[in-house]
Amino acid sequence: QKEVEQNSGPLSVPEGAIASLNCTYSDRGSQSFFWYRQYSGKSPELIMFIYSNGDKEDGRFTAQLNKASQYVSLLIRDSQPSDSATYLCAVTGDTGGFKTIFGAGTRLFVKA
Amino acid sequence: SQTIHQWPATLVQPVGSPLSLECTVEGTSNPNLYWYRQAAGRGLQLLFYSVGIGQISSEVPQNLSASRPQDRQFILSSKKLLLSDSGFYLCAWSRTLFNQPQHFGDGTRLSIL
Prior knowledge:
The complex is a heterodimer. By secondary structure, chain A is mainly β. Chain A has strands at about 5, 10-15, 20-25, 30-40, 45-50, 55-60, 60-65, 70-75, 85-95, 100, 105-110.
């Protein structure tokens, strides 16, 4: 059974702080890694994707991938109350064939 | 740009009634299409995916079925709904099946009474 694991949270950070969200995956052959943001009652929205080891930055977001440790993370700098949402980690490639496996998500609260 | 439309937004149905949810994609051709269900507070469960017209792969043995009658149209159906079919149903598309991100519609919140 291919798995993507996330801490369910909630993770609470003060406004302006760095929020660090983590994800581990079981299939060593996985090739593509995505982060989605899901506001309560809404559908998931893609915010980042990463394919290679290392860091990828997009505005206040940084995705980090370590394939040797089967670990992917999302850093949110200067966190804002509007960042409060559930963040879903998704993994594809060899994981489960040609399908994307989603983690259950981490709830993030940013306190004003 | 590509857009995905999903309807209805909410639906309340009695147990045993039929179901039809529809999803269409604009601005791209030959997309890969997906149906997911998300139970309250849970992750996304892949129900069906399709790589082309009439090609449907089922991931779960449920009383649900899917069809793709046109390139950019994906339909989720049931002949008889169960209480356990309640949830948030999401349609998604991607450019290719492998390594590409999926993009979601707004979802249908289905309640079974």
